[in-house]
Backbone:
């Protein structure tokens, strides 16, 4: 795992976008197309701002999959991750080949997970952009995460720590308003990406970063699994890296 500590959120976002864009350009040159996975949340703001402006990417040859979404939330809701990605990414890149969204308000979430699984099955994923949650979740795979399922997308229960993070980031007016279930890309599907680019700023993520980097690889710390990936880039700022025992340069 390549761990880098950047000076601030802006530098972190620029580095994440730059590394991801390089991987996309490589896929376009070698295969004529690229498939990426996009995450949401406060950790991705700066990265997406830089990614949409990255030079040398023919977005008409790029397909983007959606990492996770709340069950029962319409796209019109301010906290909808579909809405987030449509506003912050899809609307800002010219002629994206396809955006494969998770329909969180589908009548049957399990059927929606199967639909998504059929669309991503067998596809080469060039880069997955993601973060790490305050409870060390990866996507919406809260602890204890399912490290075994081969299903690409699954319906999951959100634990209280995860729901409190969403409240704390300002997406919902109260804890009661935060959905209790989500459709999430599974751990094994995330690990199938050729490259993982994880953006993790802020002191509130420091405990999770320490668990992911220095603790045991365990379903109780879901993001720890990225240490088994052959090409994972973990990008931190000084606050999120503050509890690591070994200081690393940027």
Residues:
């Amino acid at each position: 795992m390549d761990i880098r500590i950047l000076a601030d959120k802006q530098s972190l976002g620029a580095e994440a976008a730059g590394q991801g864009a390089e991987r996309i350009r490589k896929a376009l040159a070698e295969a004529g197309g690229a498939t990426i996975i996009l995450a949401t949340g406060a950790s991705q703001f700066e990265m997406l701002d830089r990614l949409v402006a990255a030079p040398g990417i023919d977005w008409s040859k790029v397909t983007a999959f959606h990492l996770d979404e709340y069950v029962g939330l319409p796209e019109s809701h301010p906290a909808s991750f579909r809405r987030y990605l449509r506003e912050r990414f899809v609307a800002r890149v010219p002629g994206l080949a396809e955006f494969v969204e998770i329909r969180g308000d589908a009548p049957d979430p399990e059927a929606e997970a199967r639909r998504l699984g059929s669309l991503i099955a067998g596809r080469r994923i060039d880069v997955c952009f993601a973060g790490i949650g305050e409870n060390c979740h990866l996507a919406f795979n809260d602890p204890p995460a399912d490290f075994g399922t081969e299903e690409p997308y699954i319906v999951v229960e959100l634990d209280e720590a995860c729901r409190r993070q969403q409240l704390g980031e300002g997406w919902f007016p109260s804890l009661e308003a935060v959905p209790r279930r989500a459709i999430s890309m599974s751990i094994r599907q995330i690990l199938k990406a050729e490259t993982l680019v994880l953006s993790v700023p802020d002191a509130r993520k420091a405990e999770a970063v320490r668990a992911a980097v220095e603790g045991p690889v365990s379903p109780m710390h879901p993001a720890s699994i990225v240490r088994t990936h052959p090409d994972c880039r973990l990008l931190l700022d000084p606050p999120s890296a503050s509890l690591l025992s070994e200081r690393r340069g940027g």
Observations:
- The chain has seven helices and ten strands.
